[in-house]
């Protein structure tokens, strides 16, 4: 399974997934068609599937044109069929779906939008988390509420630690600055920041991250941790209140 991040718009990533054995190709969240077409032409491969994590324009913008050119099938959340352009196959929470020889499990993770899903490749341990979990961050809460978003992040936290995390945007550097502001003596975070700075200086993507790294360094995944609660002077507060506080701080960062 080969995964290639394709930078789109200003800071979006679409991902080309290519399974060499079955010669199956998919693209996750094509915000525009042109960069995807260029890549496929260069590699001389066709597109079989378009996978959408959620309905926002910067994740579905290339759907219709790519479908027209390649006759690709569009896969998304059943509950969002009315707002994912060109959708062919609607999948439900926990449903499994075959991509070539691989199995994808759909995990419904509402909060950023109500119909947001994660595509989890079970055997390969690869998760496409869209705008729900970013490297060192999480998405803004547009349609859901904080409880929902926290519950969704907790679902992702239960995946195997070695899971590779491919997210929807290159926000990592700015996210790291935010995490460092409120979680400043976290050594794992400091180490991760050094790696990020290096990648940034070479103009390389900071994706994928790993769930292991995120659990140690992403402040939004640490809202249940005592040491973080103490840092935020919220020692005996519920996880969800700590999460809301951190999300609010990030909104005005
Ligand atoms: Zn979005
Ligand atoms: Fe987005």
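Q: What amino acid sequence fits the structure above?
A:
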């Amino acid at each position: 399974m080969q995964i290639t991040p394709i930078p789109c718009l200003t800071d979006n990533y679409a991902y080309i997934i290519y399974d060499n054995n079955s010669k199956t190709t998919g693209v996750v969240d094509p915000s525009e068609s042109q960069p995807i077409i260029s890549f496929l032409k260069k590699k001389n491969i066709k597109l079989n599937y378009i996978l959408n994590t959620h309905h926002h324009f910067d994740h579905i913008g290339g759907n219709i044109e790519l479908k027209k050119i390649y006759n690709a099938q569009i896969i998304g959340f059943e509950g969002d069929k009315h707002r994912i352009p060109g959708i062919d196959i609607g999948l439900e929470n926990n449903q499994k779906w075959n991509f070539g020889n691989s199995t994808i499990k759909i995990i419904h993770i509402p909060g950023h939008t109500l119909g947001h899903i994660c595509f989890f490749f079970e055997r390969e341990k690869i998760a496409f988390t869209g705008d729900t979990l970013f490297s060192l961050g999480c998405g803004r809460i547009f349609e859901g509420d904080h409880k929902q978003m926290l519950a969704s992040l907790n679902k992702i936290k239960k995946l195997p630690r070695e899971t590779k995390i491919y997210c929807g945007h290159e926000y990592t550097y700015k996210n790291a600055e935010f995490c460092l502001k409120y979680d400043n003596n976290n050594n794992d975070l400091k180490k991760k920041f050094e790696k990020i700075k290096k990648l940034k200086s070479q103009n390389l993507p900071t994706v994928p991250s790993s769930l292991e790294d995120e659990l140690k360094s992403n402040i939004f995944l640490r809202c249940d941790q005592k040491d973080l609660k103490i840092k935020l002077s919220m020692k005996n507060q519920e996880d969800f209140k700590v999460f809301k506080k951190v999300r609010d701080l990030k909104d005005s960062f």
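Q: And what stands out in the fold?
A: Residues 234 and 242 are 7 Å apart (CA to CA).
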